[in-house]
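Standup notes, structure subgroup. Blocker cleared on the magnesium ion input:
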Amino acid sequence: MSNLLEVNHLAVSFSTEEGEVQVVRDVSFSLKKGETLAILGESGCGKSVLCKSILRILPENGSIKSGEVILNGENMTKLSPKSMDRVRGKEISMIFQDPMTLLNPTITIGKQIMEAVLIHQKISKSAAKKKSIELMELVGLDDAENRHAQYPHHFSGGMRQRSVIAIALACNPKVLIADEPTTALDVTIQAQILELIQEIQAKTGISIIFITHDLGVAAQLAQRIAVMYAGKIVEIGTAQDIFYDPRHPYTWGLMSSLPKIDSDEGLLNCISGMPPNLLHLPRGDAFAQRNKYALKIDYLAEPPMFKISATHSAATWLLHQDAPKVQPPVRFQGL
Amino acid sequence: MNDVIYLGKKVIQFVLVIVLLSIIVFYMSRLSPGDPLMSYYGDGVERMNTAQKLEAMDKLGLNAPIYKQYIDWLANAAHGEYGISYKYKQDVTVVIGDVYKNTIILGGLAYTLNFLLALLLGIFCTLHEDQTIDKIICKVGVVTSCIPSFWVSLLLILIFSINLGILPSSGAYALGQSNNLTSRIGHLVLPLTVLVLSHLWYYTYMIRNKLVEEIRQDYVLLCKVKGLNKKQIVYKHCLRNIMPSYITIMAISVPHILGGTYVVEKVFSYPGLGSLCFESAKYHDYNMLLVLCLITGILVVFVNMLAQVINDKIDPRMKHDRSEIDWNCNTATSI
Ligand SMILES: Nc1ncnc2c1ncn2[C@@H]1O[C@H](COP(=O)(O)OP(=O)(O)OP(=O)(O)O)[C@@H](O)[C@H]1O
Ligand SMILES: [Mg+2]
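Run returned:
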C-alpha cells in the first residue's frame, strides 16, 4: 500500500530574541491509510510544533526551514495559503492538547460544528444542522438536539474535547492529528476519549497520528511508534519493534521508567538529567549527556538513522558495525 | 425578576449621579469669580451704584445662600421651569431649542462617521497586519491624531475658505438659508473633517489592537484547522468577540467626541450647544450653563450605563458571571 502522508526531512525553527531555536530537526516518517502512528516524547521535545508545521498553523515567529510534507502526492509546504485552506479540515485535521480554550466562547457548539460542515461542502443549512447533530451523536454527546444550542461554558472538558473531535471530523478528513488529546482530562474521561478515537477509526478508516508521552496509550492505539527526542525522531518502527526490540538508549530509558507491577523496587526508574536546551544544542548526539552507553563519537557527530529491518530504524552510534555490542537493560514484559 | 432589580439599581445610580452633578455645577458656577450682572445688563452695570446692584442681584435671586438658591431652582425645575438666560433674556429652553439640532447633526454625523471608518480601517489593518500598507496607515494615523484640532481647523479654513474660497468658514448655513440643504452640507464639511481627522485614529488603533489580540486566541487555531481563512476568521469569529469592547469604546467616547464637537463649534462659530456652553460660562449665565451641563451629563452617564447593559446582554460569558453574582447578592440580603 502506498503512503497517504509522507514527511521528509522536515525542519522547523522559531526566531526568538535569543536567536534561532531549532525545534524540529530532520524529521521523516510516513503514514498509511487506516494506520495509527504514535509519536512518543517528553514534554518540550517539539511534538506539538511538528503537528502544527504539518498543518502550517505555526505561530508567526515559527517557520518551516526545509523538508516536505506530502499528502496524497501533493507537497503541502509548497501550497499557496488559499489552497492550504482547502486542505485543512477536508484532507487533514487536528485536535489539541487543551480543549478548554479551543472553542469560540460566544458561539454555540452547534453553530461551530455546522460551520466546519459547511466550509467544504455545498449543502443547505438544515442539512448541515442535521449532519452536525449526527456528528455530536457520533462523538458521544448525548441529548445532541439540546446541546446543539448551548455555549462552550456549559460543557465540561471531556465534552469540549468531544466537540472539538466532532469539528475535526466534520468533513471526513483522511488524516487526523491528535496532539495529546487526553492530557488535560480526568483519567476516566481519558479512557473514554481513547475508546472514542478507536471507535471512530474502526468506523471511518481514518489515519491517525497520535501524539503522547504515555507508552501505555501508544501500545493501546498504535500499529507504529516513533520516539522523539530534542526535535528528532530517534527510533521508529512497528509497536512490536519498539516494545520487544528497542535499540535506542533513550527508548530503553522510556521502557524502564514504566512502573512494573511485580517489581520489588520502591522507586520508579527515570532517565537522569535534563533535556538539552534547543537554543544551544550540544555538538554530536543531543542525548549523549544523559546516555549511560554514550560512546566517544556521540560527543563528536550526530548519529544517522541506522536501518535494523524493513520497518525499524534508530539513530544511535551503538548500531554502527564497529560499535561495541551492548545488552539492552530492559525486556518488555507487557503492560 | 433579576432583570427588574438590575434595572432598578441602574436607574437609582443614574438619578444619584445627575443630582450630584447638578449640585457641583451649581456651586462651582456661583463660587467662581465674575459678575453675572454683566451678562444681563451689559455695560450698564458700570453705571450702577452698590444699592442698585444689590437690587438687581435680588431680582435675579442671587443674594440668598447658595443651598437655598439650589432648592428654589430644584422646585422650579420640577415644574419644568429652568429659569431664563441672563444674556438672551429668554427661557433657557427656548434658546437651546433653537440650536440643539445643529449640534445633534454635527456631533451625530461625526460620531457615526468616526466609528464606521474606524471599524473598516481596523479590520483592514488587521487583515494586512505588519504589511507595508498597515504600517503606513499606522504612521499616518499617529501623525494626524497628534495635531491639535483647533490648528487643523485654522489650516483648513485658510486653505478652503480663504485661499480657494470653496467652503464657508463659519455658521451652520448661509444667511437666511436655514432650510437650504446644500448650504447646510457645505457648512458641515470642514467641521466634520476636523472631527474625523482628530478622532479617527484613536478608535481605529483601539479596534485594530483588539482584533490583532483576538486573532491570537486559541480558538482561532481550531478555526484554521476547519479551513477558514483569515478574512472569514476575522468576520465570523473575532469581530463578534470584540463587539463588547467595541461598544464600550463607543460609549466611553461619547463625551470625547461631544467635547470635540463643542471645541470645533467654537472655532467655526457654528451655532450649537458647544458655542452656547462657552458663552454661558464666559458671561456667568448660570441657568443656561447648568442646563447645558445637565444635558451633556445626562447623555454621557446614560450612554455609559447603556454600554454596561448591552455588554451584559451581548456576551454569554458575562451574562453567566453576572447572574451568578446577582444570585449571591440576593441570598446574602435575604439571610
Ligand atoms: N512560538 C514559539 N517561540 C519560540 N519557541 C517555541 C514557540 N513555541 C514552542 N517553542 C519551543 O518549542 C519547543 C517544543 O514545544 P512543543 O510545544 O512542540 O513541545 P511538546 O513536545 O508539544 O511538549 P508538551 O508535551 O509539553 O506539549 C519548546 O522547547 C518550546 O520552548
Ligand atoms: Mg504539546
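Discussed briefly. Chain A touches chain B at residues 55, 57, 81-82, 85-90, 93-94, 96, 98, 101-107, 115-116, 119-120, 151, 153, 164, 167-168, 170-171 (CB under 8 Å).
Next: hand off to the docking folks.
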